[in-house]
Every structure is written in structure tokens, then in C-alpha cells.
Amino acid sequence: MPFTIAHVSDLHVSEYGDTFHDRLRVVKRSANVVAADPAKLEVVWEEAGWRVLRERGKRRAKITLVDPDGFAHPVPSLKEGAGVIDPVERAAAKAFRLEARRATTLAKHVPAAPALRHLFEATPRNSNVRLLRAVQAIEESGVDAVVVTGDITDDGAGWELVEAAFARWKNEGRLFAIPGNHDLYLFPMRGSARPRPTHASKRAAWQRFAARVGLELSPCGAWIRFLEEADAVIVGLDSCARPQRRFFRHNGSIGAEQLAWLREVGMTGAFRAAKHRLVLLHHHVVPLPHGVGRRAPSEIGMRLDDARSAAEVFDEVGVTAVLHGHRHVSEQRQPAGSNFTILASPSLTLGCRSGDDPSFWRVELADHLIASRVRVPVQAMEQDEDPQEGMAEALVGSLMGDGSVTDLAAEGEDD
Ligand SMILES: [Fe+2]
Ligand SMILES: [Fe+2]
Fold this sequence. Notes:
The chain is an alpha/beta fold and 415 residues long. Strand 10 (276-280), helix 11 (307-317) and strand 11 form a beta-alpha-beta unit. The chain is built from 13 helices and 15 strands. The chain has helices at residues 87-101, 103-108, 113-122, 127-140, 159-165, 167-170, 181-184, 199-212, 255-266, 269-273, 307-317, 387-399, 404-409, and strands spanning 3-8, 41-47, 50-55, 63-66, 72-73, 145-149, 175-178, 223-227, 232-236, 276-280, 321-324, 331-333, 341-344, 359-365, 369-375. The protein folds into two domains: 3-16 and 103-409, Purple Acid Phosphatase, chain A, domain 2; 24-94, no CATH class. Helix 3 (113-122) packs antiparallel against helix 4 (127-140) and helix 9 (255-266) runs parallel beside helix 11 (307-317). A six-stranded mixed sheet has the order 8-9-10-11-13-12. The chain binds fe (ii) ion (2 copies).
């Protein structure tokens, strides 16, 4: 029996399962913790750390819903609350709905299939719930290891859910991951993560996750793992190695340091001796069209700036396959002029930009690498364009003429 890997990507989990790619449904909450002065506010409902507060001594008292971390959420209107008259009841119902889908809650007790079906039917767009559904399909495919190629979280929160969902492989030391731009970079628009993430808080959360799943990051951010049972070596690279210069720039770069590191480990006997030499990174190496007869989308703010030098090093050390995510496109190819195979995985939760349903690659490490696309029985979600991309294009328009365009659109070694 050959060793098998599930290559998944772009989980986009978050604290409550909302994502930037579904902007209309981003869970709104206050940016700061509510100062709940008991002299002014009374608690009228409380459960699992959630509270509904009412202003004291007022006839038309304001009602506030506060989550366990102290951030306020808007109370649903009469219309949104399915006609429930009492605002306290509407707020409590919302608290139950959010709490049941919260990453920490789901991680503590991963729901069994019937409960999960119920959650999915009530909120089919929720990416936390979608992840757990997809993991059922991965379990059924009976793979020995799982690799996740970035955008594991939507905005740097929800890592614990990923660990719980893939616990079976994590506990065997066979969960491999690298970060993506959503995990490490910041966005020009507001997401629902609280407290608001910073570059430092995002990187620290990724590093803690890597340590918990047993990945030893070298100072340059890369890691390496030999899988003797598979006659394979896996290398993880951080394609967000360069600090983000502007909020709308989500271009990736592996950087000279990691490439030098790869050259060095690639020269070792153990690396050379492995039959399968896999590299994981988040950004795409070549532009990917969204399907047959369709053009590759704009690269602005999205591409891997040092793709060409990376590909040179990959061939120099004899990388056999490059596994990535980022554009939410499922594709397998052998790029012109290179010797490695590319496996691009779509979003495991949102689906493929072609409109195809979510899927992952089931990779058999036999005499050769054999990859087959396994679809998850969950419908694709209509995805908003990558938020940073729309923003970058708008800026290109407004910056025309002042020289900044050169930096934004045409930066990199290819130009
Ligand atoms: Fe993504
Ligand atoms: Fe990405």
C-alpha cells in the first residue's frame, strides 16, 4: 500500500466561521471591550460567558449583546430575529447560534455527524462548519498524512479548530502546514477578529500552532521532515517571509534566506536519496486560469514575486512536486521549462474559483506521484474576489502617474 497524503488548502476558518470572502456576512462586533459599568447596565441574561445587558432606569433602554471576550455584537432587528418581539430573546438566540459555531467551542467537542449536519443545514456558508464536513470526506479517503498549504485561518484566529479537526493526523505527527497571506498579513478592511490582529500577533499565533503540531521552524521560517515510510522528504516554506509593506499588498516572496537554506538541505545525502521531494508554499508559482477557455486572473497584489528564482532552486535540488494554494484553484500541471509537478489545491471550505465544489488532492507516493482530485460533498460558495486584489486595483487607478504603480503592479524580478 503506497503512502497517501491529502493536500488541502485555504481553510479560512475564523472565530465564528465568517470570512472576508463572504463580506456581507462578516460578524460585526465592537473593536474594544465593552466597559460594563454595573451602575449603568444590568445583566438580563447570561450563559456560557455571553451576556445581554440593559441600560438601567430608562424606558427605551438599549440592549447590548456581549461575547465571552467582552466585545459587543449588534442585536438582531425584529425582521432579522424572525419576528421575536423581545430583543433580549433575539440577542440570546444570536448568542446560541454564534457560540455553537465558535472555533473554541467546536474544538472542545467536535460534533458528531448528525449534529454537524444540523449546524450545516442552518448555516451552510459557515467556514468552520464546512471545514468539519470536509474533514469527514478526508477521513473516508483513508490518507496517512495531511498537508495544509496556507490561509489556514481567515484573519489569524481559529487555529485550535484546525488542530481539533485534524487531531487524528496531528497526534501521529503527520499534520504538516505552512502559513498563507491571510494567516500573516493584514487587510485594509475590517474583519471580525478581536482583538484586532497585528503582524506580530498573527506571526506568533502561527508559530505557536507550528510548535503544537510538531514542526520545528528554522530561523528563516522553513522546516523539513523526512518520511521514511513514504521514501519522501517534505519541505515547508513561508511565502510571506518578507514583511508586508502595505495593507493592500499580499504578494508573496520566499526570499534569499529560505532559498539558500533549501539549497543547503537539498545537497544533503538524505534529501537526494528520497524518491519524493515535496515543497509546500502558499503562493502560486505560475498564474492559474479559472478553467478551460478562461484567462488567468490579475496578478496584482497576489503573485509570488520571486517565483522564477524559486523554480530555479527547486530544479537545482531536484524537487519532484510543489504543493500550494492561494488562488482557490484546483489544478495539476507540469510547468514549461521546469521538472517539478505543481499541485494547486482550492479552498477546502469555499471551493474552486472555477465554480467547482471544494476538493482536495489525494496524493499517492508510489513509484511515481499519483494525484487524484477528491470532491467534498459540499456545494461551492460564491466567493468574493480576494479583498486585497480589488483594493489594489482600485488603488492602481487612483495612483496612475505618481510612480507608485511601479511599486504596486510591476515590482519583482520578472519586470
Ligand atoms: Fe485563500
Ligand atoms: Fe492566499
